[in-house]
Task: inverse folding
């Protein structure tokens, strides 16, 4: 098993997840990176190693599959034995009114955006506790990518927003239960970020006005640098020039 710090990043093959995984690599973390597409992960792994990651484990998994969380955690545990950082980034975002939202899509959105992150967090607890015991000054960190939609309601995003609000609550509860043991969680809740997940609204909100992926990466990096005595439960990031919730 490696003696480097290690991190698990979900949805780490593109967008915010890849940005954070790259920064973790530059900081010397060994990584487990998940995404749905194995070929994309195979292409990303050498890039992360070139950025500085001493080892990169990839796990192709669809988080709508209820067996995925155990498989991902097992892969990380068997390679590293502990976990210094858990980045819960993967998610799906589909719009639809309450009156018309299909229940099949409802189930998948809850599975990917909340059930899977909860299962990953629960399964990672022993690994996070080991890391916190090994490094009491720095502790272990959990970073969850929530959304402004979980803080302020937006028409058409009832289900997506509800799952992100649930993530905010989950991280708050994690801190209540575990921050005294050295495991600290932070939710990052941004407005629209310039990724392909926001392509659906770029005809009305131009990409050049959206938050940059690099901004979210900087916030995540700063959280990782905090001591175990500092808890930042959530960070809300507005777009410049936009009102709250935009």
Result:
């Amino acid at each position: 098993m490696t003696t480097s710090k290690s991190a698990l990043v979900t949805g780490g093959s593109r967008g915010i997840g890849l940005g954070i995984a790259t920064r973790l690599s530059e900081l010397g973390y060994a990584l487990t990176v998940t995404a749905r597409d194995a070929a994309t992960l195979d292409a990303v792994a050498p890039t992360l190693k070139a950025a500085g990651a001493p080892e990169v484990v990839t796990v192709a998994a669809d988080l709508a599959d209820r067996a995925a969380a155990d498989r991902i955690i097992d892969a990380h545990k068997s390679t590293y034995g502990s976990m210094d950082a858990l980045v819960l980034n993967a998610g799906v975002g589909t719009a639809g009114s309450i009156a018309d939202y299909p229940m099949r899509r409802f189930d998948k959105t809850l599975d990917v955006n909340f059930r899977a992150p909860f299962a990953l967090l629960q399964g990672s607890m022993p690994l996070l506790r080991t890391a916190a015991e090994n490094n009491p000054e720095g502790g272990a960190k959990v970073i969850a990518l929530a959304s402004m939609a979980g803080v302020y309601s937006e028409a058409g995003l009832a289900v997506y927003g509800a799952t992100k609000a649930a993530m905010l609550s989950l991280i708050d509860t994690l801190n209540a239960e575990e921050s005294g043991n050295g495991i600290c969680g932070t939710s990052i809740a941004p407005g629209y970020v310039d990724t392909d997940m926001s392509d659906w609204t770029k005809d009305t909100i131009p990409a050049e006005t959206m938050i940059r992926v690099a901004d979210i990466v900087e916030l995540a990096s700063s959280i990782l640098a905090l001591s175990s005595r500092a808890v930042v439960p959530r960070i809300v990031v507005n777009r410049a020039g936009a009102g709250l919730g935009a």
